[in-house]
C-alpha cells in the first residue's frame, strides 16, 4: 500500500535472535576443565590442608619435638597426644608437623632441579638440527639406564660428610638429597620437552618469527616454550610425589636425614621395630606419605585434562 512503512525485521516474531558468543579466556577454560575432575579438586583441598597443617601447625601445637617423657612411652592417640607417642615418650604430632615441612620441601626443591635441568636439556636438543641432539639424547639414555637407588645410596655415602661440613648437618643432607634426587629425575622431562619442541618448531607462528629474523633463543623463550609448558607442569607434579617417596625410602634405609630430624620416612624407620605394640607410630606417617602422594598424582591427572587443548568443555 502507498505510504505504508515496512515493518522492522526485529519486530517480526518469526525471526529468531542471533545468540551472542562470550569469549572465554584460556585460564578460565582450563579451570572449568579442571573442575570436572572431581578427584583432582578434592585432592587440591586435601593437599592444601596438609601444607597448611605443616606450615602453621607449630603455632597451633607448640610442643617441643625432642621433649622426652619416659612415663608416656608408646601411648596411643589421646587428648594429650593426638597421634600418640614413640618409645621415648615424644609427641608424634609435633614430630610429624616438623618432618612434614622437610619432606614437602625436599619434594618441591627436587622437582625444581629436575624440571629445570630437563627443560634446558630438552629445549637445546629440540632446537638442534645437527650433532647436539643425538649427543644429548645419548646422555639421557645413559642416565635412564643407571640403577637409581643403588647410585643414590653410593653418592650419599660418599659425599654426605663433606656437605655436612660445608652446610651443616641438616643443610648438608638437604642439599645432597635434593641435588641427587633432582639430578636423577630430569630425563623424562627432557624427553617430553624435546618432543614438544620438535613438533612446535615447525608450526606456522614459529616459521613467521624465524622469517622476521628472530634468533633461536627468542624462538625458544618467546614462542615455543610457553606453548610447551602444559605437559611440563603435569610432569613436574609427578616429580614432586616421586621425590617424596625417594626421600622417604632413603630415610627408611637410614641414609637420609639424621635421627634427630624426624622426617616422615625417618618416623617409619624408627617405628618398624614396634609395629605390634605401637602400630600408630607407623600408621600416621605412612598415611601422610600416602595421602600426599595420592593427592599430587590426582592433581597431575586434573592438570593434564585441564591443559589439553583437544578436550572440550
Features:
313 residues, mainly alpha, 12 helices
Could you provide a short overview of the structure?
The chain is an all-alpha fold.
Question: How do the strands and helices of this protein lay out in sequence?
Answer:
Elements (H helix, E strand, L loop, with lengths): L25 H11 L1 H23 L31 H36 L4 H14 L2 H20 L1 H15 L3 H14 L3 H8 L4 H9 L4 H24 L11 H8 L8 H27 L7
What this model shows, in words?
This protein is an all-alpha fold. Helices cover 67% and strands 0% of the residues. The protein contains twelve helices and no strands. It has helices spanning 26-36, 38-60, 92-127, 132-145, 148-167, 169-183, 187-200, 204-211, 216-224, 229-252, 264-271, 280-306. Helix 10 (229-252) packs parallel to helix 11 and helix 11 packs antiparallel against helix 12 (280-306). The radius of gyration is 27 Å and the shape is globular. Mean pLDDT is 82; it is low at 7-11.
- The level of helicity is 55-70%
Radius of gyration: 27 Å
Low-pLDDT ranges: 7-11
Number of strand segments: 0
Put simply, the count of helices is 12
What distance separates the N and C termini? 52 Å
The average pLDDT value, as a whole number, equals 82
Note the main sheet.
none
Structural class: mainly alpha
